[in-house]
Specification:
The protein is mainly alpha-helical. The longest helix is centred in the C-terminal third of the chain and has 37 residues.
Length: about 130
Amino acid sequence: MSLTQTRYTISEVEARTGLSQHTLRWYERIGLMPHVDRSHSGQRRFTDDDLGWLAFVGKLRTTGMSVADMVRYAELVREGEHTVDQRRELLEQTRREVRARITELNDALAVLDFKIDLYTGKAARA
């Protein structure tokens, strides 16, 4: 890590990510965050890499991945390159689940569109 790399306080990370300080500390405590550097006074100092990781975790949360699976993924990353296949497998499973949810949502959207068209008289004209 470069000595000139930008460092962010937990307050700055909260402002940049929208995650509360409580959530950031919890992520660190449960092992979802990699080791966060500390200043000489013990204050957390986040890096751009940490912000990138948090953005990725946010995407995993959006997929509906469980916290346990996210923590498992983080552990695999820390274990090193020999876990690439396991990480890929975990992400592929999540992708399958997301695609299934998208299909369900598209089906639900079609029903909503039909009902809205029915109520606006469009279905009767079609």
